Predict the structure of 4-hydroxy-3-methylbut-2-en-1-yl diphosphate synthase (flavodoxin).
Amino acid sequence: MVFTIKRRPTSQVMVGNVGIGSDYPIRVQSMTNTNTEDVDQTVSQIIALADSGSELVRVTVNTEKAAKAVPFIVEKLSTLGYDTPIVGDFHFNGHRLLQAEPECAKALAKLRINPGNVGRGARKDEQFSAIVEEALKYRKPVRIGVNWGSLDPEVLKRLVDENLKRAVPLTNDELMCEAMIVSALESIEFAKEIGMTDEDIILSVKVSQSQQLIKVYRDIAPKVRVPLHLGLTEAGMGMKGIVASSAALAVLLQEGIGDTIRISLTPEPNAPRTEEVLVGKEILQSLQIRAFTPKVVACPGCGRTSSDDFQYLAQKIQSYIDHNMPIWKQNYEGVEKMVVAVMGCIVNGPGESKMANIGISLPGNGEKPVAPVYIDGERAVTLKGENIAEEFKQIIDEYIDGKYRKQQ
């Protein structure tokens, strides 16, 4: 089941062939960590990210060679059958690269600007304006991405001076959050003065701590109509990053805040970049906002489950679903909403199995050595012996073919 959460109304922004905003699903995106100058390596990673479910992919554009490579990257992706929108990430020299390499701007689906890194002093507005003008010239949307690790120093200094005059000064964290909001709002207003509209802008205000992220997005959401991109700016590595991102984004998404997300995990050495995409999808699926793949419900085990058979069975069924989902989604409509239960004993096993589309309840300690299978709430068959996993897979296949096959 997919729950309908009332999202804040926003403008609709088209990024290539992907719509972002409250009329569209919440999108999952990611970013490469390859050297963009290396076309083949970057294309390979974009394909891996897209295959794992990333609906947009951002690439670093930091040198002239990287800017020159972008059109070749997009062309090669198209040749290989991929139309995933590619977003250019610009810092410090984006104005110069876009002006020098117009084919780069043409090839990209969106430009990302960081107001804190666009320029200093009198050059800041000029260089910000130059990037926006290039985006307008080629009808490309922009993401104004404010980051508390690279805040506009002029905005921060101004607010620090004002804070010193307050009767009750803001804390450092409160001041940083306020500075981010001010920078974001001023940047949006300036982009509109140059010629952009709410249909051209996506906004992010990223921090690295969960509570601060919740606060800053809650504060800015009522002040803008543009879609909001969510994510901790540096979530961290492994379990820490996953939990921190899940804790923050779950709160905001449940409140209807957020139109696209990225999970900025630090990958383990030599680990695939795709983990951040899988985590993002799992957050949306766990909140029942979107469904990407059938869910396997499995119990944690207890003293009743003296055998580890149910653990191996749950693992086999999860792997079977992951392996077959790319084929299933082409031939079966709605299969991603299916729920499969693999339970380990009689306490919750039958109940969970009945609530799933398909469920199996393995015998626990002291129970009869049989495994009843439930289909749409009704007991259908009882499995025994050494081939329970293969027989259960066959039941899943038959169920999917009977219920989800696309009409010709």
Observations:
- Residues 12-287 form a domain with the TIM Barrel fold (CATH 3.20.20.20).
- The first strand starts at residue 13 and ends at 15.
- Residues 139 and 200 are 8 Å apart (CA to CA).
- The chain has two domains: 12-287, 295-404.
